[in-house]
Amino acid sequence: MGSILKSIALLMAFLAAPTLQAQQVPGQALTLKDAVNYALQNKSDAKKARLQVENSEYQIEEVRARALPTITANGNLTYNPILQQNALPGDFFGAPGTTILAPLGQKWTSSAGVNLTQTVFDQSVFTGLKAAKTTREYYQVNAQLTDEQVIERVANNYYQVYVQREKLRVIDSTYKNTEKSRNIIKGQFDNGLAKRIDLDRMNVNLSNLRTQRQTLINEVQKQENTLKFYMGMPIDTKIVIPETEFTVTPLTLEESADVTKLSEYQLLKTQEKLYYYNRKAIVAEYYPTLSLTAGYNYLGQGPEMPWFKKPSDGVYWTDYSTIGANLKIPIFNGFGTRARVRQATIDLKKTEEDVKDTKLSLELAYQNATTQIRNSLITIDNQKENVELAQSVMDDTRNNYQNGLATLTDLLDAENSYIEATNNYTTALLDYKLAEVQLIKSKGELKTLTN
């Protein structure tokens, strides 16, 4: 039986070896600052937000173009196989009292010219230019908000990776100590000084620890992959998170914060301005529009294609020009404009309500974050003491067991209590760090994590 158990132990150690080696693969050291800055440079959300800011400049240029003159060149060449017959009084041809059908025009005509149109007054153009500039402001605030969202997601997942690794470290440490105890029991069993049931129970406990360890390894890998996704980093990149990153530092807690400076609030206020200009653009349909036009053209006519022909060929070229003013005064369109104005007014009022609700929501988030910070600090202190106590109990119980003063059940219970206490402590640390991120966010200081 001893040889069988020894063979089983060797087999389990062999199966666990690849996993242990996988954890020893060197990787890129990644601090929270490094992770955040990498994400801001590589995550597609941040890139697209910057592209929207760039695109807003082109939108301004597009609206500005409506206020600048429009110049077009035109030309055509027409062949008339059959000229239209026109009924003309015979008086023109020396035959009074008769009607003569005569063709007017030439078989060939060609024209070329340049035309200019300049808007003099169009209220929608002026309003549209203001709206385009506000759109640029909107995308700038949106880019800032997107960066903050990227930072928040990366920070939260960064700390979650750390917690999973801490839990894995505790299991590894417990496994080594339990394995030592199992080896002692095995030696005692081989010499007839221990019961087989004690050895079997230790082997079962080691098997359970290996199962927990493998589950944590999988969780760490999945959490790391999630972190790399939110960073925009290739999934196959190996990373290492320094232990010094997970520390509890005191934060200044104030009774309230000025949430009107936060990006979420500023974005809604900018959107409110856009709805305001949208309403003004619709109201501008009530205003008249005035534009100037000018053109200069050349016209060639004759029985042959006019190009490169002279009067001697029966082709004559003449020039002409036009200057005009176009005035458009809206009078009645079936109350369509009025309906659109009222719809735009409703959109504006809805946005005003969103602004109020968002302000309350941001204030609530700040108060919840400060409350969570205070509670987490108390929990961390309690759990830290609990870990130290569980460590002491486990060490004493292991020593007593080796000296025959404690039962195996006492030892296993002490080890499980230590694992539970340590996991509770790391969970409390995670709750604190997540609350810390929320507090920094509610104060509008997420960008400080990049420094």
From TrEMBL:
<keyword id="KW-0813">Transport</keyword>
<feature type="coiled-coil region">
    <location>
        <begin position="199"/>
        <end position="226"/>
    </location>
</feature>
<protein>
    <submittedName>
        <fullName>Transporter</fullName>
    </submittedName>
</protein>
<dbReference type="InterPro" id="IPR051906">
    <property type="entry name" value="TolC-like"/>
</dbReference>
<feature type="signal peptide">
    <location>
        <begin position="1"/>
        <end position="22"/>
    </location>
</feature>
<dbReference type="Pfam" id="PF02321">
    <property type="entry name" value="OEP"/>
</dbReference>
<keyword id="KW-0472">Membrane</keyword>
<dbReference type="InterPro" id="IPR003423">
    <property type="entry name" value="OMP_efflux"/>
</dbReference>
<keyword id="KW-0175">Coiled coil</keyword>
<keyword id="KW-0732">Signal</keyword>
<keyword id="KW-0998">Cell outer membrane</keyword>
<keyword id="KW-0812">Transmembrane</keyword>
<keyword id="KW-1134">Transmembrane beta strand</keyword>
<comment type="similarity">
    <text>Belongs to the outer membrane factor (OMF) (TC 1.B.17) family.</text>
</comment>
<dbReference type="GO" id="GO:0009279">
    <property type="term" value="C:cell outer membrane"/>
</dbReference>
<dbReference type="GO" id="GO:0015288">
    <property type="term" value="F:porin activity"/>
</dbReference>
<dbReference type="GO" id="GO:1990281">
    <property type="term" value="C:efflux pump complex"/>
</dbReference>
<dbReference type="GO" id="GO:0015562">
    <property type="term" value="F:efflux transmembrane transporter activity"/>
</dbReference>
